[in-house]
User: Fold this.
Amino acid sequence: MKYTKLYNIHQKLGAKIVDFAGFKMPVQYSSIIAEHKAVRNSVGVFDVSHMGEIFIRGSKALEFVQFITINDASVLYNGRVQYSAMCYEDGGIVDDLLVYRINEKEFLFVVNAANKDKDLNWMKKNNNFEVEISDESDEYSLLAVQGPNSKEVVQSVCERAVDLEYYHFFFAKVAGVDMIVSRTGYTGELGYELYFKGNETVAEKVWNTIFDAGKKFDIQPAGLGARDSLRLEMGYCLYGNDIDQTTNPLEAGLGWITKLKKNNFIGKGALIKIKNEGLKRRLVPIISEEKAFPRHGYELTIDGQKVGNVTSGTVSPILDKAIALGYVDFKYASEGNKINFLIRGKEIPAVITKLPFIKK
Assistant:
């Protein structure tokens, strides 16, 4: 079991600690709802140091990135980030990830913690480009400062103006520590990610400096529970729930990152075939007025017949309604269609809606 360099801080704060992706991680501090609302209304900080950081270096780095990911990395420039995915030859998803272009010969992949070793092996297996693939995950800590007041907090401890556009990054000192500062986020709110190296003392210094800067905004630590409910309100996919090797990006609503016109990439042939033959199912957002808690794996029904399954579900802390993502047979997957959650043998009425659940 691994520990992030902020584990002692989480313990001192009384966090509920769980085993997650091989790490001891805080799932909540006060309550999931309170932390969720802190991020929506002011600012919260997540320790997401369990995420994987894999660097690609070499003269053919861009060619490798183009071959192993489904999005078009050729449009990236230095300081730009891209949401992408890696697929198997059959179109199933290896992982979804962020691609950072540092320069033409150096890229950073930020991957899901639970998939890091699998991703690394997949990348090495398909390295026909003589690039260096360097797993530096254990060297980096990663904090996500999220919420409408996040910019003021980060700006007060950053040496340069944080006027970052969405999906951009730069290098700067924050709290006196060299960092990659990016603006991607997984909550739907304004937010910043801080990647930095250093031991526990360095990590705790950064954490404490940020919390001192955020006192006037009642800054709060936030755990994995709030991270999950926040991303679900926006309809962001979670690997292992909504996407995995049995799903493809087209049926998962990720056609917008699947560039079938670019040169050869792993899974291209299969994805073109899937598109031409027509989708069999589609991942859809579902909402209900009923007081119910749809959970992963629950059946979705229409007129008593199973038409799909829930992949992610919760009661939205902001809407106070049941929300879910789930795969539904394609012919039933249109917005506005009535559908039911099957919960303990009872059909709970719901409707297929459009994302995000929380309208900004």
Remarks:
- Residues 200-213 form the longest helix (14 residues).
- The first strand starts at residue 2 and ends at 3.
- Helices lie at 7-12, 32-41, 61-68, 116-125, 150-157, 200-213, 224-234, 268-277.
- Residues 2-48+138-232 form a domain with the Gyrase A; domain 2 fold (CATH 3.30.1360.120).
